Amino acid sequence: MIKLLFYALIFLIAAAYLALIAKEDPGYALLSYGDWSVEGTLVFLLSVLTVIISGILLVVYLLVKTIKFPGRISHWTHNRKTHKAIKNCNQGFIELAEGNWREAEKHLRKSANDSGMPILNYLAAARAAQEEGAQRRRDNYLLQAHKSDPSADVAIGLTQAELQIKDGQAEQALATLMHLRSVAPRHKQVLKMLFAVYQQLNSWRDLEQLLPVLKKNNIFELHVVNSFEKSLIQQLMKQALQEQNRGELKALWNRLPKLTQNEPDMIHFYCQLLLTINEEEQAIELIKEGIKRHWYAPLILLFGQAREGDVVKQLETAESWLSDNGRSSELLLTLGRLSIYNQLWGKARDYLLESIKTTPSTEAFQVLGELYEQHLDDSVEAMNCYREGLILSSKCREVVRLEDNSAVKTALPYN
User: Which CATH number belongs to the domain containing residue 336 in this structure?
Assistant: First the structure.
């Protein structure tokens, strides 16, 4: 429109200029062709030619506009649909954030094809369908997302695996992630999610094979991987114990780095398993070595639960620790147990009473009660010990319950 006004202004200026010239000298012009001729003033002839040319240009202009009209209508319609789709898309994402799953799914589905970003619409619609428990619709949206952009296979697959995990479909998620790993072997998010799924499925052997890949690709911080590696070995040891595979159990221990083998909690864990399969001699040697390096209360208690071939020597070893590490309640309880193994009833009673006096424990009351009942023929004192043990146990459970409630309140600040 601006161009048209500009050209009209030029035309008027030119016409005014010609009119001024024609006023002084209109000129003379003769056009002749065969028997046909036209004569008149030059200004008149130029005016007629101008009108004719302008008319031709106007007709051409109108023809061009007429030809382009359907395209303009189509473009306008497309823009209108796109604007409406974007509006629906925005509304869908707002409703998704607000938890209005059904409305979010409806708006995202309606706007998918015209929004210019169908893959995002379909992935978001899949999440909304998931929240509604509509697995079939969820999978259909994921399929539509793949059709809209086949090159986004990893992004779509990760969304699918995430939704499957959330829905408790760990095995289906594993199949999805295995496919993604074949497509993108080093993708960090794929490896992270595969790690999580293996944990859900208690697939310890697969985790053992995945662990070096996690280390190589720096998926987690090194201290996190090392901590998990220790937990993984513990799970594999439990599995070997369940399968009654002693060779595998010992092989797993021998595969541990020396530094890990020297950790007191790891020694305690392994020795518990050894005692379960009656490998008491090896367990006792490991406990002794562990206590030399670290004074660790659970190891002290475990030493009293094992029974060496020479129980006199075992008691002497434990008593030698009194001078070096003091009279802790754990050591006194262990000495009481070992005294019972040696049939030293009075000595056992004294150690156990001192242990309770130092730090009362349900375990010490239990052992002392059994000593009174089975070897000292004092059922009254036995019942008193059992009762005190039960009272102490009840108090401990109450403390744990209160701590758990406190943890819940901390985790739920809006309650």
Answer: 1.25.40.10
**pLDDT at site 302:** 93
Tokens 């799970």 belong to 235
pLDDT at 197 over 50: yes
Which among 295, 309, 370, 359 is positioned nearest to 333, based on CA atoms? Answer: 359
Q: What is the pTM of this model?
A: 0.63
- Which pLDDT tens digit goes with each residue over 273-297? 999 988 888 999 999 999 988 889 9
Q: Which residue has the tokens 């002290």?
A: 300
Instruction: Identify the burial level of 16 via C-beta atoms within 10 angstroms of its C-beta, where 0-12 means exposed, 13-18 middle and 19 or more buried.
Output: exposed
Mean pLDDT of the chain: 81
Domain count, the chain: 2
Q: Please say which residue of 116, 148, 180 terminates a domain.
A: 148
| CA 121 to each of CA 15, 78, 89, 133, 228: distance values in angstroms, whole numbers, following the listed order | 60, 19, 7, 18, 38
Contact criterion met (CB below 8 Å) for 88 and 105: no
Q: How far is CA 85 from the centre of its chain?
A: 32
Alpha-carbon span 287 to 295, nearest angstrom? 10
Segment 63-116, tens digit of pLDDT: 766 666 565 555 544 455 556 657 777 777 788 788 888 887 787 777 766 666
For residue 171, the one-letter residue type is E
- Domain, as residue range, for 104: 1-148
Distance of alpha carbon 273 from alpha carbon 232, whole angstroms: 15
Dihedral sign, CA of 338, 340, 345, 351?
A: positive
Q: CA nearest 336: which of 323, 319, 324? A: 319
179 within a domain of the structure (yes/no): no
Dig out the tokens for 203 from the structure. 């697939």
Q: Which of 44-53, 119-128, 351-360 has the highest mean pLDDT?
A: 351-360
Surface-to-core class of residue 59, CB atoms within 10 Å of its CB (0-12 exposed, 13-18 middle, 19+ buried): exposed
Q: Considering the domain boundaries, does residue 303 fall inside one?
A: no
Q: Are 187 and 154 in contact (CB under 8 A)?
A: yes
